[in-house]
Design goal:
The protein has 198 residues and is mainly alpha-helical. The N and C termini lie far apart (77 Å). The longest helix is centred in the first third of the chain and has 25 residues. A two-stranded antiparallel sheet has the order 1-2. A two-stranded antiparallel sheet has the order 3-4. Strand 3 and strand 4 form a beta hairpin.
Length: 198
């Protein structure tokens, strides 16, 4: 291909691409009030994205049946607002492992691992998992040496004797209500209302 022709192609492509973006900005100066046109513009990105992705969805694997099944599963997850990555991880990795290894076997290994360090030479304790290594998750062992019974709602429960120090280490002044992120979802509790009330 001659260089002159190539440059013409590039110029035509550049101009057409530029005009597509500039003409609407120049021609439409006011807010678009037409409901149909606004809806049309709203769905253009979705339509373009679908046109780009859909061919690859069915032909990227080389197997139309497998691609169709995968597409159907993805649509079901999307419709139900589920995270397909989390489900795939659970059912392809976690679930097979739990089926392969009996819970009693796993629990026995867990007990043996914990018992290796259950002696008096250590004076600190922590989680065995979940945010391990953080200073606020390392506590004095003596705080858990014994328990005290306290009232809770309609019953009594046992709590560590060093509960105050334990809570302060992780939460600071835990008696002050604070608006902070939660890892337990959108659960809202009222300090003025029993959780048993509807």
């Amino acid at each position: 291909m001659k260089l002159s022709r190539l440059l013409v192609y590039i110029a035509v492509t550049a101009v057409s691409t530029y005009l597509i973006r500039v003409i609407p900005l120049v021609a439409i100066q006011k807010k678009i009030e037409n409901r149909f046109f606004r809806s049309f513009l709203y769905y253009v990105p979705y339509a373009v994205l679908a046109a780009m992705i859909m061919p690859a969805v069915f032909y990227a694997t080389g197997n139309l049946i497998a691609s169709t099944i995968g597409f159907a599963i993805a649509m079901i997850f999307a419709y139900n607002k589920k995270n397909i990555v989390s489900w795939a991880k659970h059912y392809l990795i976690v679930k097979p492992l739990t089926l392969w290894m009996d819970y009693k076997i796993l629990y026995a290994k867990y007990e043996r691992l914990c018992s290796q360090y259950n002696n008096s030479e250590f004076n600190r304790v922590s989680y065995i998992a979940y945010s391990h290594g953080k200073k606020k998750h390392i506590w004095n062992k003596e705080w858990f040496d014994s328990a005290k019974e306290v009232d809770f709602e309609f019953t009594k429960i046992d709590i560590p004797v060093g509960y105050n120090e334990r809570l302060k280490t992780e939460y600071g002044d835990y008696m002050v209500i604070k608006n902070v992120p939660s890892s337990h979802g959108e659960l809202i509790l009222s300090s003025e209302k029993s959780y048993m009330e509807e």
